[in-house]
C-alpha cells in the first residue's frame, strides 16, 4: 500500500472531496511509513502558561500552530482534543478548523477527539459536523461514545463509510472511573466493553489491510487478554506519558492485537514545547520506545 496518508490536495479549504481510500487503509499506510505514534494536541491552560503563552485565543492559536508545524510532517496521527478549543467558543473552533486543515495538508491523519454520542437523530448532526467531507471540521476520524447504545452510532458509521473516514469507539478507557460502566455485565455475563468490541469486529469483517472502525483502549489497564481486542481495526491507546503507562507496557496490555495499536501521547510530548526541536525529539523518543517494545 503506497497511498499517501494525507488529505486530498484541496485540504485547507472548506470543501473536501471524499477520500476513496478507507481510513483503515490510510492509517495502516501511515503507520507503516511513520510508525504508529499519535500525538495529542491538548492545549491545557497550564501548558499555555508553561509555553509562555497567554490563556486566550492568541495563545491557543500559537500553541496549535507550533504543534502542527513541529509534528504533522512526521507522526502518523495528530489528535486534537476538541474540549480545549471549545472552551474559547467560536474563535476556538476557528483555530481548530485551521489546525485540522494544516495538519492534514502536512500529511498527518487527524483524529478529532470529541467523544460524541447521542440519540441517532442528533448523532447524525455530529456526524455531519465531523465526518461529512464538506464540513469545515471534517477529520480523518472521530472518537465516539457508545453509551447511548451502539446502534445510536449508526449515522456516524454511515457518514464515515460515505466519506472514507474512521471512528474510534470508547471501549475500555484509560481512566479508572471507566470500569464501573465498561466492565458491567449483562445477564449472559458479557461486559459492556466486550459488546462494543464484538460490534466493531462485525463492522470490520473482511476489511483489508485494516478496518476503519477502531476502539479506544487505555494503555494503563494492564493485561486485557479477557477482552476480544482482535477487531480487525485500530486500537487507540491513550494513557502513555502523563497517565503513567509506557510504551514498554503495550505488549502485555494488548497481546496479539499489539500491531494494530495506535499509542497516543499528549502531555508527555507537549511539555517539551514550545521549542520545535524539543517537541520533535520527544515524539522521536516515544516512537523509538514504541518500536523497541513492538519488536
Ligand atoms: O480513554 C481515554 C480516551 C481519551 N483520552 C484522551 O487522550 C488524551 C490523553 O492526554 P495525556 O496528556 O496523554 O494524558 C486526552 O485528550 C484525553 O481526553 C484519554 O486520556 N483516555
UniProtKB/TrEMBL annotation:
Transmembrane segments: none
EC number: 4.1.1.23
Keywords for this protein: Decarboxylase, Lyase, Pyrimidine biosynthesis
Domain Orotidine 5'-phosphate decarboxylase: from-to ranges: 36-282
Chain intervals for the UniProt region annotation (Disordered): 1-23
Reactions accelerated catalytically: orotidine 5'-phosphate + H(+) = UMP + CO2
One GO BP: 'de novo' UMP biosynthetic process
Signal peptide limits: none
Pfam families: OMPdecase
Active-site residue numbers: 115 (proton donor)
UniProt-recorded Gene Ontology molecular function terms: orotidine-5'-phosphate decarboxylase activity
Keyword Lyase: yes
Pathway: Pyrimidine metabolism; UMP biosynthesis via de novo pathway; UMP from orotate: step 2/2
SMART domains hit by this protein: OMPdecase
Family, similarity comment: Belongs to the OMP decarboxylase family. Type 2 subfamily.
Protein known as: Orotidine 5'-phosphate decarboxylase
Native source organism of the sequence: Streptomyces cacaoi
Amino acid at each position: 500500500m503506497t497511498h499517501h496518508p494525507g488529505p486530498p490536495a484541496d485540504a485547507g479549504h472548506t470543501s473536501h472531496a471524499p477520500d476513496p481510500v478507507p481510513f483503515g487503509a490510510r492509517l495502516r499506510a501511515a503507520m507503516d511509513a511513520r510508525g504508529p505514534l499519535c500525538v495529542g494536541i491538548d492545549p491545557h491552560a497550564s501548558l499555555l502558561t508553561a509555553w509562555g503563552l497567554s490563556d486566550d485565543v492568541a495563545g491557543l492559536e500559537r500553541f496549535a500552530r507550533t504543534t502542527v508545524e513541529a509534528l504533522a510532517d512526521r507522526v502518523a496521527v495528530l489528535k486534537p482534543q476538541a474540549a480545549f478549543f471549545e472552551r474559547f467558543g467560536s474563535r476556538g473552533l476557528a483555530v481548530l478548523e485551521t489546525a485540522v486543515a494544516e495538519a492534514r495538508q502536512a500529511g498527518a491523519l487527524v483524529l478529532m477527539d470529541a467523544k460524541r454520542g447521542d440519540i441517532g437523530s442528533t448523532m447524525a448532526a455530529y456526524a455531519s459536523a465531523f465526518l461529512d467531507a464538506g464540513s469545515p471540521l471534517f477529520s480523518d476520524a472521530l472518537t465516539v461514545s457508545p453509551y447511548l447504545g451502539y446502534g445510536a452510532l449508526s449515522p456516524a458509521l454511515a457518514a464515515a463509510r460515505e466519506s472514507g473516514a474512521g471512528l474510534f469507539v470508547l471501549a475500555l478507557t484509560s481512566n479508572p472511573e471507566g470500569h464501573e460502566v465498561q466492565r458491567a455485565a449483562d445477564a449472559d455475563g458479557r461486559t459492556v466493553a466486550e459488546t462494543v468490541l464484538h460490534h466493531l469486529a462485525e463492522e470490520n469483517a473482511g476489511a483489508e489491510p485494516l478496518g476503519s472502525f477502531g476502539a479506544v483502549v487505555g494503555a494503563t489497564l494492564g493485561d486485557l487478554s479477557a477482552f476480544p481486542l482482535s477487531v480487525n481495526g485500530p486500537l487507540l491507546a491513550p494513557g502513555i506519558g502523563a497517565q503513567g503507562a509506557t510504551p514498554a507496557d503495550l505488549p502485555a496490555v494488548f497481546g496479539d492485537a499489539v500491531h494494530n495499536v495506535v499509542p497516543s501521547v499528549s502531555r508527555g510530548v507537549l511539555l517539551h514545547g514550545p521549542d520545535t526541536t524539543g517537541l520533535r525529539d520527544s515524539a522521536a523518543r516515544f516512537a523509538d520506545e514504541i518500536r523497541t517494545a513492538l519488536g
